[in-house]
Design goal:
By secondary structure, the chain is an alpha+beta fold. Helices cover 47% and strands 24% of the residues.
Length: 674
């Protein structure tokens, strides 16, 4: 029994030892496998982080169940923080990183509020880092769910899109500048689809070509029917042939608009091809070249007239050999010297007529001849004996002559008597000097009249200002006193006679209404332009008074930052707006008005618009147009107006504020209590 127990124990010990050895081997293998997995995981993480850096993308994950918050190095680098500094909640993140300006935080909170359970959230926001740098980031996050289906966190990615945003901003600015350049150069772009005849016009075509705002062109046929004159049909047919062949085209069209205005348009088109090479559309530009074309026509006509006059005005023809000696004259004697042709032949011009030019002029002329260059309108002179002033002038023009081998063989040209012209030029020069003096006198007179006009406007404005102030200070105060007395009388009569008290109340109402009308009239005569903020408050007051007095809708769009230091300009701009509003309300019967004050193109733009005029009121009845134009000219402003019974009426005043020096108007200052 003891021996069997001994064997049993020995076997058990062997079994235990074997198991321990097997466990040790398995544990070693497990540790090796874990190290391999750790190495692979580290490699994958490094590879993932490298991919994030290359893509400029950062990632993050938050697990509320395990309280895990992790972020990639790219993410931490983007937000300039460590893992320990990362905010845990969305609200902490907003307070820590989202830019507080321009309502960015409120917009981010609203975006997070729209997130529903289980949905991915994407968007962009502007962040402000601890060094003050602002960046735009694009983010994308999704929820994480556990095995039980409960949401236990979020994970997502972020990307720095600051450069993209900046590129988009620069693109918008460039596009705006390009559109402005096209407007100034009167250039428009178009896209024409051949199959559908659909026409797409870019830029502000109607404004560029001064077309009605409501005019639309949806097809090329509509454009050609409206813009192309009947006389251009043959040219159009030739151009359509090029289009049918898929070739680029460049044409100049004469356009007669419905209002009988003639314009000249230059159109360029390039074919657009699909992947198969088929032309499916044309893309190009249209430019208004009316001014250039008109000038070119005038220049061509002028050149033609000059050529014909030159041909008709030649008096004689001459030829010279290579040594500049005369070899032929078309007349028996030269007009300039009365010398017989046989005396002139064989001699040079400077040998025959040494006094015809000065030494310097002869040297310059001979240099031209030696260079074998043509010369035009060389004016020579003749003198009477003992007279220092020329009595005759002759114009000589010539060109070099070469034989078939290219050798120089001499000159040939024409001559004509220009004595009358030169004498007329001398008389014209004397008259020009007289006209210059007269013009200077006229300019001084015009300046004096302009100053008188400004002075007259100042006197009128000063008188209106004083009248408004006196109306407010004297009549307004008297009426206020009467109103108080009437109110007191009403109170005293209330206990004695209701009828008398009613009469007193009626008097009080009439006086209060008179006070209100007095205030409105005072504001109209003496607006708060000086001392209370300038033109903007005065225009606000004009709108408020107009609403109260005429019960009309009056909207304002005024740039509160505009401050005009020129008192005269402020007042005249206000008077112009006041006149337009008064005419629209009292004569045109409008029920809606609006006024705008803004900067644009280096100028201050004041625009007054109204609804449709009553039937029968025509633009020719606009009785204040001359007064408005006069006021505008006084301050160097321009006025443009558009009147339409269908779309309303707009008057725009452009005052070049950057070019105008401040003017001190000697006007009374309004009191602040007004």
């Amino acid at each position: 029994m003891g021996i069997e127990l001994t064997y049993l124990l020995s076997a058990l010990l062997v079994l235990v030892a074997g198991s321990l050895c097997f466990a040790a081997v398995a544990l070693a293998r497990l540790r090796a496998t874990r190290e391999v997995l750790r190495a692979q995981l580290a490699t994958q993480r490094a590879h993932f982080e490298q991919m994030e850096r290359l893509a400029n993308v950062g990632s993050w994950i938050s697990d509320t169940s395990s309280k895990l918050l992790d972020a990639s190095p790219t993410y931490l680098e983007l937000y300039q923080c460590s893992l320990a500094e990362l905010p845990v909640t969305a609200e902490d993140f907003i307070e820590r990183f989202v830019d507080p300006e321009n309502g960015e935080r409120e917009r981010m909170r609203e975006l997070l509020a729209t997130r529903t359970k289980g949905q991915m959230l994407t968007g962009e926001c502007r962040i402000r880092l601890k060094d003050g740098t602002r960046k735009w980031v694009h983010f994308c996050s999704e929820p994480i769910f556990g095995e039980d289906g409960a949401q236990r966190g979020h994970r997502g990615i972020v990307r720095d899109v600051t450069e993209e945003r900046e590129a988009q901003r620069r693109l918008r600015e460039t596009t705006m500048l390009l559109r402005e350049a096209h407007r100034i150069a009167k250039v428009g772009h178009f896209h024409w689809e051949l199959a559908s005849d659909r026409l797409t016009l870019f830029d502000d075509f109607n404004e560029i070509f001064e077309l009605p705002a409501a005019q639309r062109f949806d097809t090329m046929s509509q454009w050609m029917a409206y813009m192309i004159a009947a006389s251009e049909k043959e040219s159009v047919a030739q151009n359509m042939l090029r289009i049918a062949q898929g070739l680029p085209y460049h044409v100049i069209r004469r356009v007669v608009l419905p209002d009988n205005r003639t314009r000249y348009l230059e159109a360029r088109g390039m074919p657009q091809r699909d992947v198969s090479g088929r032309v499916y559309a044309y893309r190009g530009t249209v430019r208004d070249i009316t001014e250039q074309h008109t000038q070119l026509l005038q220049l061509t006509r002028s050149e033609e007239r000059f050529r014909r006059l030159t041909e008709l005005s030649s008096d004689w023809y001459w030829e010279q050999d290579a040594a500049h000696r005369f070899t032929f004259l078309s007349r028996e004697e030269t007009v300039s010297s009365k010398l017989p042709a046989k005396v002139v032949l064989g001699k040079t011009r400077w040998e025959l007529f040494p006094q015809a030019l000065s030494a310097t002029e002869w040297a310059a002329h001979r240099a031209v001849l030696d260079a074998r260059q043509p010369f035009f309108d060389l004016v020579t002179r003749t003198y009477a004996e003992g007279d220092p002033d020329p009595i005759g002038y002759f114009s000589i023009s010539g060109e070099p002559v070469f034989n078939a081998q290219g050798d120089f063989v001499g000159y040939r040209g024409v001559g004509r008597d220009v004595t009358k012209r030169k004498l007329a030029e001398r008389a014209l020069a004397a008259k020009s000097a007289e006209l210059l003096l007269a013009n200077e006198a006229l300019q001084r007179e015009a300046a004096r009249r302009e100053q008188l006009e400004k002075s007259l406007l100042l006197v009128i404005e000063s008188a209106m200002t004083r009248a408004g102030s006196q109306l407010h200070e004297e009549l307004g105060q008297d009426l206020t006193g009467i109103a108080l007395l009437a109110k007191s009388l009403e109170a005293k009569l209330r206990n004695t006679s209701q009828a008398a008290a009613g009469d007193a109340k009626y008097i009080t109402d009439l006086v209060n209404r008179s006070i209100q009308q007095t205030r409105l009239l005072s504001n109209s005569l003496s607006p708060k332009i000086i001392g209370d903020g300038g033109l903007v408050p005065a225009l606000h007051q004009l709108a408020a008074d107009t609403r109260m007095r005429h019960q009309v809708e009056f909207n304002t769009r005024l740039d509160e930052g505009i401050q005009i230091s020129d008192d005269i300009a402020s007042r005249l701009l206000y008077r112009i707006a006041q006149d337009v509003v008064a005419f629209a309300v009292l004569h045109a019967g409008v029920s809606t008005l609006w006024i705008s004050l803004r900067r644009g193109g280096g100028a201050v733009l004041l625009t007054v618009g109204s609804g449709r005029w009553q039937e029968g009121v025509q633009s020719s009845q606009w009785s204040i147009a001359d007064a408005i134009a006069q006021r505008a000219r006084t301050i160097g402003a321009t006025v443009r107006s558009r009147h339409s019974n269908d779309y309303g009426n707009v008057v725009r005043i452009s005052w070049p504020a950057m070019l105008a020096a401040p003017t001190s108007a000697n006007l009374p200052r309004e009191k602040s209590e007004k």
